[in-house]
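Notes taken during the Thursday session

The instructor put the following on the board and asked us to keep it in front of us for the whole hour. The protein is Nuclear receptor binding SET domain protein 2. We were told not to look anything up and to reason only from what is written here. First, the residues (346 in total):
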Amino acid sequence: MRCLRCPVAYHTGEMCVAAGSEMLTPTTTICTNHFSPKKGYSHHSHVNVSWCFVCSKGGQLLCCESCPAAFHPDCLNIAMPDGSWFCNDCRAGKKPKYRDIIWVKLGNYRWWPAEIHHPRNIPTNIQHLRHEIGEFPVFFFGSKDYFWTHQGRVFPYMEGDRGSRFQKTGIGKVFKNALLEAETRFKEIKMEREAKETQENNRKPPPYKYIKINKPCGRVQVYTADVSEIPKCNCKPTDEKPCGFESECLNRMLMYECHPQVCPNAERCCNQDFTKRHYPETKIIKTAGKGWGLVALRDIKKGEFVNEYIGELIDEEECRSRIKYYQENDITHFYMLTIDKVPSLV
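Then, after some discussion, the predicted structure tokens were revealed:
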């Protein structure tokens, strides 16, 4: 799902898309980066908290210009910068999402706990209230009210928040109930997400064909090296680990593998990881928002052989044809790797 006005893109669905994005089609949107505050609308103004997000104390604060976050420069181990400054979350593109539990600042009211609702799940009269791209509806705990707000007036609710650092005076009954409701709802959503994550992790990947060598397609030809032209190293069979990771093997230093028919160490050669498929033990896992992935079950040393890319070898014409087909059919889970001037690996 891509923004029509800038390079921002999200996975389809509501798990990743930023709250307040305007959905144009199932695959196009206008993201919240295009929120434009209106003059005279006080609730469009940006507001920062009056305490440090690290130590919870006041004083001279460094304020983010995109969200309410504020910090003591000393708590971040940085000097007070000149000009505009944005917190790490905002620089990383982190945005509020639907069903997030948040703190909201509205008018002269204290910071209040609320939940971001999807516009289709709110009362009709609230849907019809005037709002801009980048604004999203929030449901206030305790008071049961709704209002449209934006990123510049909300920050994430954290487990255990009680509101004490946001208000020094006593709290009323409505606010006390709001805190209890927010805590209950936060735990409920957290349990739902953890259960879904566990279910996803227990799933098996879709069927796939396991291959051990590259598969040439169409007019692509596989060239076999001439053994007489393959370089020969000067390692000795008497070495403890001939051609090993810490040896002075010329082939290894030049990032070549020794050939079993050329290397003087034959089967004792330790520089034939591709040939012998010496891959570290791995496990297939389901990653959050990134599909299926592969993780190593042990630490891998710097410079150590990890794995080999294996797939279909295709020429440029076939590559262009497939990319066109993928774009027309909204297929995004593929990987093209150019291995030389002609074939590509898919």
